[in-house]
Design a protein that fits this description.
The protein is α+β, with helices and mostly antiparallel strands and 261 residues long. It has a single domain (38-260), classed as Outer Surface Protein A, domain 3. The protein has helices spanning 9-20, 25-35, 42-59, 61-67, 69-82, 97-104, 109-126, 163-173, 209-220, 224-231, 237-254; strands spanning 148-150, 155-161, 186-198, 201-207, 257-260. Helix 4 (61-67) crosses helix 8 and helix 6 (97-104) packs antiparallel against helix 7 (109-126). It is elongated, with a radius of gyration of 25 Å. The termini are far apart.
Length: 261
């Protein structure tokens, strides 16, 4: 009678992970036989898949409501099989889920964009807190050297559909997508979606090309004077300064400015 081969721990772990992630049932059975265990091992595989599908549902709640339980579960299962976790935390799982939805439903691009917004909103809640400055703090600012720092939770996304309207409708209705919800639409041209957090509430709105450009310049560290000079390349100097000042006033009112100096 032959003695069973005892695998080194690292090899046993490698084979167990390969079996755990194997989507094909026949191949999974073969791998389980190699591991030398019985049917009871399936509890681990079931728990692995259910945990990941539920993690995707938790972080893509509006996309799940929009697609419905059956379609979402099918897409989540496909993603679990195609993209095993690569991080120690479930918070990071699903980074590519919007791409999965886009690939599965190329004729429904709003589904992938809803998932993208879901993830971005989640990211705003783990961004550092920052107390927005008040307009009264601008009295001693040197505008020749001042740099505008926007709140850390600010994110810019590019959307090609009205997924932002769908996301807000699903949030306010707190229910599944139905006849009363906005119809999905392709936008005439892609637009920038601005997302940030006010306290414990996410804020979504669109930004035009000029505002997007200035936001990116703030992130790059350009001074207010440099931003005005850049705008003056397309407008009169006084108009450029007025445009930049109007944007700054809007951002202050929205709580988007963390610091100026």
């Amino acid at each position: 009678m032959s003695t069973p081969t005892i695998l080194p721990l690292a090899e046993l772990q490698r084979r167990f992970c390969a079996w755990l992630r194997e989507p094909d049932e026949d191949r999974a059975s073969e791998q389980a036989a190699v591991l030398g265990v019985g049917p009871g091992l399936s509890v681990y595989q079931n728990n692995y898949r259910v945990t990941l599908v539920e993690a995707l549902r938790e972080t893509h709640g509006r996309a799940a409501l929009y697609l419905g339980e059956s379609d979402f579960d099918a897409a989540a299962a496909h993603h679990v099989d195609a993209r095993p976790p690569s991080s120690w935390t479930l918070d990071a799982y699903g980074d590519g889920f919007p791409d999965t939805l886009t690939a599965l439903w190329p004729d429904r691009p709003e589904a992938g964009e809803l998932a993208m917004i879901d993830r971005a909103v989640g990211d705003t809640f783990v961004a550092p807190d920052a107390e927005p400055i008040a307009p009264a703090a601008l009295g001693e600012v040197d505008w020749d050297t001042a740099r505008i720092t926007l709140v850390p939770s600010l994110l810019l996304l590019e959307i090609a559909t009205n997924a932002d309207e769908l996301w807000l409708a699903l949030t306010h209705d707190e229910g599944a997508h139905d006849e009363g919800s906005p119809a999905s639409q392709i936008l005439p041209q892609p637009q920038t979606l601005v997302i940030w957090r006010q306290g414990f509430e996410p804020v979504l709105r669109r930004a035009d090309a000029m505002e997007t450009r200035v936001m990116r310049q703030c992130a790059q560290g350009l001074t207010f004077a440099e931003i005005c000079a850049d705008l003056a390349g397309d407008h009169d100097e006084d108009v450029a300064v007025n445009m930049a000042g109007t944007l700054l006033g809007q951002w202050l009112g929205e709580g988007l400015v963390a610091a100026i100096g």
